[in-house]
Amino acid sequence: MSRYLLIITIIGFVLITGCTSPEQPAENTSIFSKPPLENITSDKPSDMILTSDNTEHITGALPINTNSSNLTPLTYLSTEHDLIMDPNSTWSYFNKGRLLYDQKEFGQAILLFEEAIRKDPSNANAYYFAGASLVEMGRFSDALVYLKQATSRDPTNAGAWFETGRAYEGIRNTTGAIRAYDQAKTLDPSNGWTRYIYGRSLNREGNYTDAYQQLNISISLDPCRSEAYYEASVSLANLGNNQDALQMIERAIERDSTNKEYRIQRQKINEQADPGTWDAVIQNGKIKLDPSNATLWFNLGVIASNSQEYEEALNYLNQAILIDPLVSDAWYYKGVALYELGRFEEALCSFDKTILLDPGNAWAYYYRGDILQKFGQCQYAYPYLSKSTQLDAAIPWAYYIRGTCSLNQSRYRLAADDFDQSLNLFPCNQWAWFFGGQSYYHLNDFEKSRDYFTRALSYDPSNPEFRNWKAAALAETGNVDEAIYLYNLSTPLRSPLSCNVT
């Protein structure tokens, strides 16, 4: 099978499988005031790629930079995609080790990096990735042996310094970790992940002022990383700036509302800012105020929802509705709690009641449309989602869900427009980038689809669907070698030192 037949296979695989159903990521969202998005980030600040002239190139991005124009594709056998190995080539072993590293086969990768080192003891990259593999395996002391060799041979390798910091953290040497992260930050100042990890280490050391400075830079470089907002809230709260700390933790929750630690942090900040408020509501687990007050029950329901205690929230909100059934917000938050518990049919009734009492509640229309989309009833969901965007044009999730409906109905131009609008409002949604890429692919705009799949991969570099769709787009734009490389990242290799060539 020729390399071009392999490309036809890649494109055929993508087209046969069709559009990935957008309903699965929608099912995984968890929503309170607005739907959160899972923010997946990488552990690595930089990547070494072997260029065509066998020199190293530091990208300062993610651990697998499959998007670089400097990428040297690996050569595969026509069957089973095994690498053609040259027993005398250091870089053959290194490149195969890299592929195994990318596939998280760290134990096998180390064998290849060690073989590369035996053939060329001056190969700083081999030491670097051997050390990084050991860090991933939790063998931090062993990792430091290799990483010290890597940084001594190439002191400009930001990735090696970053992994050195991780190794020091693993052996609980915070001082050594901070020194290493500082060196990585100096060498690669535009890497948001390094800034975040550096700031987190400074927080743990109690240096909150410097920590916030690094975290603020990290956020400016990558506004989608929820962890950076969380750590920034820790810095600010410890500096006594509760108002700004609360804003930071709200942004963290907006990006990942499934993280309970974020909600606990918000509660701590609220208690620190206004300790009397909580005492006025509950004491020793009992309500202190008038139990016939609907507003009290409603507020308790909101507090429980903020803590993701949705069953408890339902009890409070039902009590509020029993006292005053005309409070639209109580019906709305009851619908949200039911939605979070997966009780979608009951949630529909609550949102219907909300819309009846408050026809201007854009979020109630959004939720109703989202639930109908989950039931596979896009033709009925579409009007509700459109009404939501008419009432509030700043809800990114309404455009996103409406886009998935259009994509499922093969209305690719409408889908692409909705995904674009959603991303303009909230660019951190990896699934909007992915489904937007699918839409543009079907519109034959392969360069744009490639760019969208690239953005999706920046959030989840190991996602095989993202890789395969990007490989298909690359093939359509004539980037055959890179398409083959990317496709094979999702294809398991054989054992590291056996080529099985007959």
Count of discrete alpha- or pi-helical segments spanning 4 or more residues: 26
Helical percent range?
Answer: 55-70%
Q: Give the radius of gyration.
A: 26 Å
What structural class is derived from the secondary structure elements?
Answer: mainly alpha
**Shape, per Cα inertia axes:** globular
Features:
2% strand; two-stranded antiparallel sheet; mainly alpha; globular; disordered C terminus; 26 helices
Would you spell out the secondary-structure blueprint of this structure?
Layout: H1 3-17, H2 23-28, E1 48-50, E2 56-58, H3 90-102, H4 106-119, H5 124-136, H6 140-153, H7 158-170, H8 174-187, H9 192-205, H10 208-221, H11 226-238, H12 242-255, H13 260-273, H14 275-281, E3 282-283, E4 286-287, H15 294-306, H16 310-323, H17 328-340, H18 344-357, H19 362-374, H20 378-391, H21 396-408, H22 412-425, H23 430-442, H24 446-459, H25 464-476, H26 480-489
Antiparallel strand pairs: 1-2, 3-4
Helix pairs in contact: 1-25, 1-26, 3-4, 3-5, 4-5, 5-6, 5-7, 6-7, 7-8, 8-9, 9-10, 9-11, 10-11, 11-12, 12-13, 13-14, 15-16, 15-17, 16-17, 17-18, 18-19, 19-20, 19-21, 20-21, 21-22, 21-23, 22-23, 23-24, 24-25, 25-26
